[in-house]
Amino acid sequence: MITATGGTNRELAEKFAATAREMGHDADIADLSVMDFPMFTVARSKELDVVPGMAELKKQMGDADSWMIIAPEYNGSMPPTLNNVVAWLSTEWQDFRALFNRRMVGLATHSGGGGAHVIIAMRQMFSFLGCIVIGRNCVSNNNKEANPETIEDMIGQLAN
Ligand SMILES: Cc1cc2nc3c(=O)[nH]c(=O)nc-3n(C[C@H](O)[C@H](O)[C@H](O)COP(=O)(O)O)c2cc1C
To answer: What is the CATH number of the domain that holds 47?
Structure first.
């Protein structure tokens, strides 16, 4: 479970992790909001040989069979924490295909509104990177709780 923010989306990540464990799978949460990576620029990527915490995150993500990406909608798109970390991971790792290509990915959001735009933005980015993004996604907001049946079904698909 990779959560872009530490509030309601972190709570949603915890729900996904709890369901995965109940279904007999291992699940960890990586919270991008506490990792505090510097903003990616090409100049910085040449200067910084080591970004603290990046190697650990890469290993955690590389060891996982599949990822749930959980992020709120920001301005009709994804939050900067997610976009930033993917920029670092796609350039810092020499062979980014080893990390992204064929990786099973599910998408979820707790947003202010419907959350459809962030799902589309994340689907475009992760598909572009070679991930296999499953068709079902989980959208929630303050008036609409995440559907437990959707969570179970998504975990079932990702753990296959
Ligand atoms: C900068 C910013 C932009 C936002 N833009 C949108 C938006 O375009 N659509 C939407 O539905 N909610 C938007 N929101 C609301 C967040 O999606 C919502 O508050 C979400 O629950 C925050 O997640 P968190 O509790 O995990 O921090 C925005 C919030 C912020 C801070």
So the answer is: 3.40.50.360
